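Dear support,

We are seeing what looks like truncated structure output for some complexes. This example has two components. We would appreciate it if you could run it in full and send us the complete token output so we can diff it against ours.
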Amino acid sequence: MTIDDRDRRPSGETRRMASPPGARQTSRDLERYAGLFAARTKVMKSSAMRDLMALTERSDIISLAGGLPDTSSFPPESFAAIMGGVATDSCARSLQYGPTEGLTVLKSCIAEVMAEEGTTVDADDVLVTSGGQQVIDLVCKTLVDPGDVIVAEAPTYPGAIPTFCSYQADVVQIGLDADGMRIDELELTLDRLEREGRRPKFIYTVPTFQNPGGATMSLPRRRRLVEVARERELLVLEDNPYGLLRYEGDPLPTLYALDGGDFVIYLGTFSKILSPGVRLGWSVGPRPVLERMNIGKQASDLCSSSLTQLFVVAYFASGRWQDYVHSLKEIYRRRRDVMLDSLAESFGPEARWTHPQGGLFIWATLPDYIDTTDLLARALDQHVAFVPGRAAFLDGRGASSMRLNFSGVGEADIREGVHRIGEVVREQIDLYGTLTGTHHTVTDAEPAPEEPDAELADVLHLPAPERRRRADARER
Amino acid sequence: MTRVAVLKGGRSLERQVSLKSGGRVEDALERLGHDVIGIDVGHDLVQRLRDAAPEVAFVALHGRDGEDGTVQELLEAIAIPYTGSGVSACFRCADKVLAKHHMLDAGIPTPDFFAFNETAFKELGAGDALPAIEQRLGFPIVVKPSGQGSALGIKFAAAAQDVPGALVAAFSYGDKVLLERHVHGRDLAVSVLDTPDGAQATALPVVEAVPREEDFYDFEARYEIGRTQFVCPADVPGDVGARAQALALDVWRVLGCRGFARIDLMLDSDSGELTVLEANVIPGMTETSLLPMAAEAAGIGFDELIGRILALAM
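Here is the complete output from our reference environment:
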């Protein structure tokens, strides 16, 4: 008997498709199902890694591994009033199917949100989706055949990886530094792909407060990226869930605004400015692409929830959405600062981390001899969790990095969680020093820098600051 | 009808596997007509066991707490009979280093190794002995935590510069780590099951895990369906199968196992020699697990297997 190898079966054996009672779900049954699975169901993560990540959700763990917004500050009485209003005013409508592209009244709210970031769109051009995640899925569904290239950042949003894999895309990842995606590296890669006769279907980027890197793409790079897309007639998927969650610095124009919507597909969501529970996101982009995405959405789920669309409409009608976003920003900014302070106190000089101007995540990188997947096992013993960097790569990179979330956990827990991770990091650095005879031991007499130099905030490998500036000068 | 508590889940790194194993065991016990209470093991374990008052506990808890004798000791304390090995056999098997020493003492072949805890490196300068160890074992060296049941933390060190990082990784999972000679060869597993009267242990057909991809150094791929192909009975030459079974029974006796267990071996491609890596007292019971697969190959269906393991405990 074998699993997954039909040829080795004894030839005379007859196989019943129906399982006999009492012998359900044996390895043979699994083999039957496995034989029916599509190639696109192949998963990237090992089961051991999945098991490890499952443990981060235990209730006795301080989890800096999630990406959850804090919904606890939404006033229950407002929720009740809004829902009551929906029931009174739009009972039948909220219980009914809606148009695939979304309710017109909601699309006006979306145009309002985008205008808040300085991006002007015609409400008619909006496709409402079931969360931002559905936009990634629909873009892949519209553009990607098996084996097609998608260009993404390194690291990239871990949640996009299963989507890319399920369309059997070949993902090429471009380095990221404190100024976002390395556009020089992107152009070299596009040249190489062109020589190989491969045209990427789209470039996926989270340009603002990147998940997981925390970096924000500089204005020159934004301009250049839009030019590159135009010159080469490539599409860019701009994933912008956090743009309004800026805690410092001046807002930058979206890629969509810079491009005018010719080559940029924009992804927005209500998840981080209101609630991920409403499962509502949206897309705007080139009309022919959006029309195909609309057809794809019909096939997926016909339409997004009318009930939650009307909830959001009623919420916007109350005129307080900006105030709520402002209150969230206050909460998250404090939490980010607490995390940055805690990192400076606890992580020691060998570690580097990003200083995000907004968003939900900090990306920390440890010495290359520390594998953060193994470190997570030790951290879980101390009841604290993070996302190992490998989850943000398809090529095995990121082993020494981690993603830390500061939006979903209170300040005291952030302090305690970072402190505990710092302890296990220091133990491992000390042990490595003992093993190699090089003592990296951090002493209290040698405090870590208050805040990492912006130049040092690069995400993976740090080029020397001078070299990096030169590279950027060329690129710009 | 017997009132059975199935212990599963827990806080180990193998929690998910254990939930699957436990779920399947519960289904089988229900089909056999027993009164089943599933318990996800946590802080309230003793209280829940007292409240449920089972006649017997089926331990489907892998890794820490389940395989290291902790839960067995608790069950002894509150006088609830349980499936599988007793406390002392759990101690011996869960600690790979201890198991290997017992095997060596009994003349059972196991790959050469050295094992240390973290303090040996931190306080006794064990790091200075690494070159000698590396010379004795030869590269590549397998570095693994002594007490971890899943593939996590197992690293191959191809050269001296890989060893410190591999040790740091392995120490993430426990305070004792072994460096073991790498056996280039085939992965075999022999499950052992007591006869229904408990009088004699029998070795089930040998299972071979054949990695599909060429990456022999990716332990995490080894037990993943699709990436590894499991063949039972293993297609091994001559008397290798019988020798593997005999070795597994020796290990079972030396370590004092009871009920059921799975013994993992390597067949050296060059010398044809069999060596024993470790023994697992709570092997997986999932759809892809090797013990149910081996039992099936021996004509013992899953329900019958579970029924027999339960009967042996009572």
